[in-house]
Design brief:
Distance between the termini: 111 Å
Number of helices: 9
Strand content: 25-35%
Radius of gyration: 36 Å
Structural class: alpha+beta
Shape: elongated
Largest sheet: 4 strands, mixed
């Protein structure tokens, strides 16, 4: 008596279980289904399984497990099962180029901060926003006000990354009608800085006729036909007299390069002029525009008494300067905000030195684009709270200045 068997054993496999991202080999081995064997002659057979190596490139990977079993007559049965999973160890990457830090208009509020949000992509699937936190989280009624926003994202495999952006809202600046009335030497000649920086066709000095400058019909709003710009800024009184006083002061502040909080619908000297002229023509001397002109006069006056330094203190780029730096506050206590404006592109470095020439720190080293506005914030360690010299180099341009400790 003997066994005659030429039929291979049959291996049956249960379904494989799911796998997480980036599984370990132990997790992969455990995910494969269980094997059972049936044979027409032999009983109690057990298949032997071997887990192969991981294969594939990119995100999708596979591993194959092979089983074999031999019955009493030497017939061999085989079976294979493949598991598929994602291998992703890289965090999402930026697809745009948002700035890490910049300065907004001085009129920006918390709700109108001009954030430039990062856009992320991932090679292996969707990107999910994990958190979006702005600090401080409410309007700050100080200037300059600094807001920091941090976006954190994650991919399907739990890889996370963050992007931080800082917006500095500078102080709105403006000199009062009284300042300009008492400092007519600053705008009584066509070569004076404010006058020289007014647009062609809109320049005025102290002796320019008010009605002629604003192209107003004789007698508009009761103004004398002989009224000069100096006379307008010197008059006392309310309604259109007050409007004219603050209007001339606002135009002078704008031409001086101060960081003016322009009224709604205006962005520069010319649009401000047009808004003022329209209000004067219609006799609208007590509306929103007047309140906003008055606010310019009541803004930060810290630079008005240093008019000779306005070019460098207030970010103004004069015709012969390609790069400017402002430092605020100066004198400082424990923090300095440096604002760089550049008409040129190039590799740059920003360094601080002690008054004896010792290097304190390199605050920035990198590339600055043409027409960029870059803000550098230096939280001054207690050991470095002393008067210092800063040195900015962009290409061939070099700008130096001094910051003074308040202590």
């Amino acid at each position: 008596t003997y066994n005659f068997d030429q039929t291979n054993p049959v291996i049956a496999l249960t379904a494989a279980g799911p796998l997480p991202c980036n599984p370990t080999m132990a997790q992969i081995a455990a995910a494969f289904g269980a094997a059972t064997v049936t044979d027409n002659c032999s009983q109690g057979l057990t298949a032997t399984g071997t887990v192969g190596a991981e294969s594939g490139t990119g995100c999708t990977r596979t591993v194959v497990k092979s089983w074999t079993v031999t019955d009493a007559c030497g017939n061999i049965g085989t079976a294979t099962q493949t598991v598929t999973f994602t291998r992703d160890l890289a965090a999402p990457t930026l697809s745009n180029n948002p700035p890490a830090a910049f300065e907004s208009l001085c009129t920006a509020t918390f709700s109108t901060l001009p954030w430039v949000a990062p856009v992320y992509v991932d090679a292996c699937g969707a990107v999910t926003l994990v958190s979006d936190v702005t600090t401080p989280s409410t309007q700050q009624d100080i200037c300059p006000a600094v807001y920091v926003r941090v976006w954190t994202v994650s991919d399907a495999c739990g890889n996370t990354t963050s992007f931080t952006q800082t917006i500095t809202v500078p102080c709105c600046e403006g000199c009062s009608p009284g300042f300009w009335k008492n400092h007519t030497e600053l705008w009584d000649q066509v070569g004076d800085y404010p006058v020289a920086h007014m647009p062609v066709g809109l320049k005025f000095t102290t002796t320019t006729n008010f009605n002629t400058y604003f192209n107003l019909p004789a007698g508009t709003n009761g103004f004398s036909n002989s009224l000069t710009m100096e006379g307008a800024i010197s008059q006392g009184g309310g309604d259109c007299i007050a409007f004219a006083r603050h209007a001339v002061a606002a135009l002078l502040s704008s031409a001086s390069g101060l960081d003016v909080g322009y009224p709604t619908g205006t962005t520069d000297f010319t649009s401000l002029y047009n808004a003022i002229r329209t209000a004067l023509l219609t006799g609208n001397c007590s509306g929103t525009l007047f309140s906003q002109l008055e606010a310019i006069s009541e803004s930060d006056h810290s630079n008005c008494g240093k008019f000779d330094e306005i070019i460098t203190m207030n970010n103004v780029i004069s015709p012969d300067r390609q790069v400017t730096v402002s430092a605020y506050p100066n004198p400082f206590t424990d923090k300095i905000v440096f604002t760089i404006k550049s008409r040129v592109s190039g590799s740059s470095s920003f360094e601080l030195y002690g008054l004896l020439g010792e290097k304190v720190t390199t605050l920035y080293q990198g590339f600055i684009e043409k027409d960029a506005v870059k803000t550098l914030i230096y939280n001054v360690p207690s050991t470095n709270r002393k008067s210092m010299v800063y040195r900015l180099r962009i290409g061939k341009e070099v700008v130096t200045g001094t910051v003074i400790t308040a202590n």
